[in-house]
Amino acid sequence: MSKLTKPFTADELAELKAYDKQVEKGVDLYPLTAEQKKNAKAVTTTSTGVYTFTKRERKPNADKRELIDALDEAMVNVADNVIVVNPERELEVWYNDVKYKVVLSAPRK
Question: How many C-alpha atoms does 108 have within 13 Å on its Cβ side?
């Protein structure tokens, strides 16, 4: 045992045990005043207007549009039905009653 600490007395141990039982039951041992509750709420709540979520506008990619247009023109001659879902990304084609999806991507590397 360390020289700086001394053992608890029987009364202190009984007091700690009673305190633990109250905490386990959910008893509010240190109730706040109305003013303290108001201050605690003001400090712990966040404001909602700090950050606005805006969708980033992408710059149009003329090369991808050109490629999708070329694929669209080529597929019209062969497929039953062709729909351009996204003019810079996606094309849906029906060929012999089966739906196919062509997705164009431009990897960075």
Answer: 0
Nearest CA-CA partner of 62 in 70, 73, 54: 70
pTM: 0.48
pLDDT tens-digit map of 35-67: 998 998 888 877 666 677 788 888 899 999 999
CB environment 54-72: b (16+ within 10 A), e (fewer): eeeeeeeeeebbeebeebb
In whole angstroms, what is the distance from residue 99 CA to residue 85 CA?
A: 13
Alpha carbon of 80 to those of 11, 55, 67, 91: distances in Å?
90, 36, 20, 13
